[in-house]
From TrEMBL:
This is Phytanoyl-CoA dioxygenase (PhyH). PANTHER family: PHYTANOYL-COA DIOXYGENASE FAMILY PROTEIN (AFU_ORTHOLOGUE AFUA_2G15850). The keyword Nucleotide-binding does not apply. The lineage of its organism: Bacteria, Pseudomonadati, Pseudomonadota, Gammaproteobacteria, Alteromonadales. Pfam families: PhyH. The keyword Transcription regulation does not apply. One of its GO terms (molecular function) is 2-oxoglutarate-dependent dioxygenase activity. Keywords: Dioxygenase, Oxidoreductase. InterPro entries: Phytyl_CoA_dOase-like (IPR008775). Gene3D superfamilies: q2cbj1_9rhob like domain. It comes from Marisediminitalea aggregata.
Length: 263
């Protein structure tokens, strides 16, 4: 099946199970260019966050900000995020106004024995009742680009629209003798090869699998809702010549307009 055909299956597959994988989405040149920028960001981030990394860190964020990358390196990321192929998928899943929320880089912990953990992204800022309600609300999507071969994710399929079972909730929240790293009956593992793209809902119950010196670049798109975009960092957005150089800057301009309106 061609990449074109796979992209046209994304919507139904995603709606049904909360995730979808497009094998070999990145060309070798795209992958190499992104990996070079990501590795530069990662090294500088490690230098500044050595203690946090040694304690527990498994990801960093705000790659497109001006903190660690120069304008040329940031433009590589901006151009990729605003490329026609990426934006076509964002339109297909979010409609005419997909908003850019953030970027994240997922890597292995310093401690090889550190446990991974089941979670929904929203559990870190919403109550349980609010998390349940969020399954019917606005969407946040991870576009995960595997820059090297990696173990990938484990997910609970369709949990982006279905609330936790008793066991899933106990494990996810660490209640009743359970811990977030315990296995779950319906878990499904999704390994990724270098160049693959996995799109998944932030509401999906999931956990990362550590190992293989992973380098997973996540681009987060969302519905243009102020309650979601209040978490966006204005320094991560392109401006002026940076914006003009992007093939399709819609996701960035939607976010900027939303932030400007909220002032």
């Amino acid at each position: 099946m061609s990449t074109y055909d796979k992209q046209h299956k994304v919507g139904p597959d995603y709606q049904r199970q909360g995730f979808v994988v497009i094998d070999g989405f990145l060309s070798e040149q795209e992958r190499a260019n992104l990996l070079a920028v990501v590795n530069e960001f990662h090294q500088q981030w490690l230098d500044k966050n050595a203690e946090f990394y040694a304690e527990r860190a498994i990801n960093s964020a705000y790659l497109t900000a001006s903190t660690f990358l120069n304008d040329v390196q940031r433009q590589v990321l901006f151009n990729f995020i605003g490329s026609q192929r990426v934006m076509t998928l964002a339109y297909g899943l979010l409609g005419k106004q997909p908003a850019f929320m953030n970027t994240q880089l997922f890597f292995d912990p310093a401690n090889p024995n550190q446990k991974n953990y089941w979670h929904r992204d929203a559990q870190y800022h919403l109550s349980l009742d609010e998390q349940r309600e969020a399954l019917k609300g606005s969407q946040v999507l991870h576009f995960r680009f595997a820059l090297v071969d990696e173990p990938g994710l484990e997910v609970i399929p369709a949990s982006h629209i279905n609330w936790d079972t008793v066991e899933e909730l106990d494990v996810r929240m660490g209640n009743n003798g359970k811990a977030p790293h315990h296995d779950l009956p319906n878990q499904y593992r999704v390994p990724l090869k270098a160049g693959d793209l996995m799109i998944f809902s932030a509401n999906l119950i999931h956990r990362g699998i550590y190992g293989m010196d992973r380098r997973a670049l996540d681009v987060l798109f969302c519905d243009p809702e102020p309650d979601i975009l209040k978490y966006a960092n204005p320094d991560c957005l392109p401006r002026g010549k940076q914006l003009a150089a992007i093939d399709d800057p819609t996701a960035f301009t939607v976010t900027q307009n939303c932030l400007d309106t909220a002032k």
